[in-house]
Amino acid sequence: CVPARSLARDRSRRRRSSPPLVRANPNSRRPISPPRRSADPPADPTVWYGELPPAGAKRHLKGMTAETIEEMENLPLDWSELDRLSGDDDDDEKKRRRERHARDVGAGDFPTLKELQDAETEESKRRMLRRILEMKKQKEDKLKRVSVRDEEGRSGATGRRKTATARVTIKPGTGVFFVNHKPLDEYILDINERGWALSPFVLTKTIGLFDAVASVRGGGLSGQAQAIRHGVARALQLYEPSFRPALKRAGYLTRDPRMVERKKPGRKKARKAFQWVKR
Questions:
Q1: Are 38 and 49 in contact (CB under 8 A)?
Q2: Are residues 160 and 127 both part of a single domain?
Q3: Mind listing the pLDDT tens digit of every residue in the chain (279 residues)?
Q4: DSSP assignment, residue 44?
Q5: DSSP state letters, 138-156
Q6: Within 13 Å and on the Cβ side, how many CA atoms surround 151?
């Protein structure tokens, strides 16, 4: 007679020694089955021992319904080329596929691989030619640009931002900057807005090499400072065309089109509505 305690101990040992039950797909509702026990592999590591996974086209059709498989078989594909590559020997099946293909899309509708490669090569050649022509045009435009100066060696331009308009004139000097007959630091007190007006000189490394005179009208101090920046940048590129690429990349030559949106009737501002009371 074996005590019940010893039997329970033996069962727990066998349970711990057995491999855990693992579900292959966590989302599957199929009952968990214990893993298959295979014989020990041979000593030679180059020999595969076990069951190989299913291969071929059948494994792709395994989870599909009969209606889906039938729809796939009725697709208008060029089965003649696929049969040639796959080496299918079923002549009746080949004939049926060719007849269905000829009936659905006709023969010769699909381009060959060589035709596709040739078309892609032609498209790349056209893109390269367009790029070369564009670069050639840019070089010609660059050669056409010349310095625009008056008899005193000055260059002038107009800058705009919001509702502000600034007429700026620059000439070689010591870095004197006047805005509306006042020094720049007296007219524009904010250091950030003053930096906006001087940024084209800083970008082209010509700070202190030009005297500038600006006449600005309209807008507030922020819009006037940015209008002066626009005018200074355009005047610099007129004085020396080689400054244009750097100024263009920084966006100083582009007129900023953003404006305050007009007030709408029935609203407090452009889009803000009046406070609404239900009762």
A1: yes
A2: no
A3: 555 556 566 666 655 555 555 555 556 566 555 555 555 555 555 555 555 555 555 556 666 777 776 766 666 555 455 555 455 455 676 667 666 666 665 545 566 667 777 777 888 888 888 999 998 888 888 778 888 899 999 999 999 999 999 999 999 999 999 999 999 999 999 999 999 999 999 999 999 999 999 999 999 999 999 999 999 999 999 999 989 999 999 999 999 999 999 999 999 999 999 999 987
A4: -
A5: HHHHHHH------TTS-EE
A6: 0
* pTM exceeds cut of 0.70: no
- Does some domain include residue 80? yes
Whether 121 maps to a domain, the answer reads yes
List the domain range (segments joined by +) for residue 100. 73-132
3-state SS class at 157 = strand
- Domain annotation covers residue 57: no
Pair 178, 237 in one domain: yes
String of b and e for 202-221 (b: at least 16 CB within 10 Å)?
ebbebeeebbbbbbbeebee
CATH number (domain holding residue 166): 3.30.230.10
Based on the fold, state whether residues 159 and 246 are members of the same structural domain. Answer: yes
The two tokens of residue 96 are: 């049926």
**Phi first, then psi: what are they for 70, rounded to 5°?**
-65, -40
125 and 174, same domain (yes or no): no
Q: Tell which residue, 256, 259, 215, has the closest CA to residue 235.
A: 215
Q: Where are the strands (E) in the chain, listed by range?
A: 155-161, 164-172, 177-179, 182-183, 210-217
In this structure, the dihedral spanned by the alpha carbons of residues 247, 248, 253 and 258, taken in order and rounded to 10 degrees, is -120
**Number of domains within the chain:** 2
Report yes or no on 163 lying in a domain: yes
